[in-house]
Specification:
Length: 380
């Protein structure tokens, strides 16, 4: 399958996800939408890494925790290599080292390679630990034979690599491998990529081993101007790295407003197909029930917007993606999924009012969301 002209990253993701589901190429967990997709034949694709000399000679290998990479994690353990796996969403650090119990047999190693095993048989690796990663293995949603990669849109693989550069754990020559289904190897324009996007040197599929010969530079470190204050608050190790680079005299100025490692607006993924925004939608008033969520600030005082009528199966990532695309990303988002609403916190009333205007008629799936400034609370 080949992407159509004038396509965005998110269009490519949706095409791949839809195709894998419709052709029954996807494997557990399903549906594969908004994931690094697992696929039938992933174990066979992983076995091909044994044909790479870079894997044979590696001592320390970093493998993402995605399901289709499970076979590579198992091979690394069976080969007695040091296996490093990123912590989920980088909440508690950058890496965990997988440590099978002494005398672990093949079945136990297989368990250690699963997501449950990663949680149960690992120890955190500190920022000051002496690590030199010889090989990086990442999942992808789409990849070109030229080595250009598209992930699921959250930017964690790109950020993890940039953080490893900052730690001195990888360098420009460290090879990067991705494991995908043959249908995920597609051609797309280089213009879709940003400086922060990670490229790959090898692509392994169930039927092919592709050496990309990619010459596009990999990220040279953390681009702090693309890091939001919200992201910094969520990732403790990122704060530590920022302090370290600040002491070294580097420019660590953060992004002026909320965002993520998604590149310029022209390169950001479009809102998913479940999100639509009619032009003739009416704007809910401040007296709607949703407006009574939390206080509204005055000039220079933080203000809140309440988004209501969220569908039962809505994901916070869907809403965040739509907010980014519409230019209304808040400083902070409070998710109240059980009450079918979310609170968007902005730096002042003017920013909140702009967000309300931008979000007129926002839909998630078939649900038309209500959007209103939160009603101010009376002083006690």
């Amino acid at each position: 399958m080949e992407p159509r002209a004038g396509i965005s990253k998110q269009d490519i993701r949706e095409q791949i996800w839809d195709y894998m589901e419709s052709e029954n190429l996807a494997d557990f967990p399903r549906p594969v939408h908004h994931r690094i997709p697992n696929f039938k034949g992933s174990h066979r694709a992983c076995q091909n890494i044994r044909d790479l000399e870079v894997f044979t000679r590696t001592q320390e290998v970093k493998v993402d925790p995605d399901k289709p990479l499970e076979g590579v994690r198992l091979l690394a353990l069976q080969s007695k290599k040091t296996l490093l796996v990123p912590t989920p969403r980088l909440r508690t650090g950058l890496f965990n080292r997988i440590t099978p119990p002494p005398g672990a047999n093949k079945d136990m190693l297989r368990k250690c390679a699963t997501s449950q095993g990663v949680r149960s048989f690992s120890v955190p690796v500190g920022l000051d630990a002496s690590i030199l990663v010889d090989l990086v293995v990442v999942g992808s949603v789409a990849v070109s034979e030229k080595g250009w990669r598209i992930g699921k849109g959250e930017g964690y693989a790109d950020l993890e690599y940039a953080m490893m550069v900052s730690m001195g754990a990888v360098h420009e020559g460290t090879p990067v491998v991705t494991i995908v289904h043959d249908c995920q190897v597609v051609d797309f324009p280089e213009a879709l990529l940003g400086d922060h996007d990670l490229t790959v040197d090898y692509i392994l599929t169930p039927t092919r081993l592709i050496s990309t010969g990619c010459r596009r530079p990999k990220p040279a470190g953390i681009t702090w101007s693309k890091i939001s204050r919200e992201m910094l608050e969520k990732i403790p190790i990122l704060r530590s790295l920022r302090e370290r680079e600040k002491r070294a005299g580097k420019d660590v100025t953060l992004q002026a407003e909320h965002g993520s490692l998604l590149g310029p607006a022209s390169q950001r993924p479009a809102a998913p197909s479940t999100v639509r925004r009619p032009q003739d939608a009416s704007l809910p008033g401040a007296d709607s029930p949703e407006a009574a969520c939390s206080p509204l600030g005055g000039e220079g005082v933080p203000a809140t917007v309440c988004v209501g009528n969220l569908p039962r199966d809505a994901r916070i990532s869907d809403l965040k993606r739509a907010l980014r695309e519409l230019g209304a990303a808040p400083l902070q988002l409070t998710w109240r999924g059980l009450r079918h609403r979310a609170l968007l916190h902005y730096q002042d009333l003017a920013a909140a009012q702009r967000a309300v205007s931008c979000l007129q008629g926002l839909h998630l799936g078939a649900s038309a969301l209500t959007v209103a400034l939160a009603r101010p609370q009376k002083d006690k």
